[in-house]
Design a protein that fits this description.
This protein is mainly α and about 110 residues long. It contains six helices and no strands. Helix 3 crosses helix 4 and helix 5 runs antiparallel to helix 6 (about 90-105). The radius of gyration is 19 Å and the shape is elongated.
Length: about 110
């Protein structure tokens, strides 16, 4: 995630306990908005494609074509999903699991 713009609570007690912090965040958010500041998001091309997926793209021109045809958001979702795995074996399994979906032009959660 590049910029979190939400705070999640599971019960009212959490809200009450963090009230001073929440007020400070809200005041800060108002000042940021007034100042016109914006978050500079990374472009999809700036994300590092995991080696396991890069190898599959090189091996399969059809997969590369299908991946390139996906929207930038769908590409980012796959890259982040593959990258989140700590072990190479897990990254390979994730890539393998998603190949057919990519070839069909579907996003990670479609």
């Amino acid at each position: 995630m590049q910029a979190a713009r939400q705070i999640r609570f599971t019960n009212v007690r959490e809200i009450v306990e963090t009230k001073p912090i929440l007020k400070a965040y809200i005041k800060e958010a108002i000042e940021v908005e007034k100042a016109g500041l914006e978050v500079n998001y990374k472009k999809t091309s700036e994300f590092v494609i995991p080696e396991e997926f890069q190898n599959r793209l090189v091996e399969s021109p059809a997969l590369k074509t299908a991946f390139d045809a996906l929207t930038p958001g769908r590409q980012r979702a796959y890259i982040l999903y593959f990258s989140a795995a700590k072990q190479s074996k897990t990254r390979e399994e994730r890539v393998e699991k998603c190949v057919q979906q990519i070839l069909k032009g579907k996003g990670l959660n479609d």
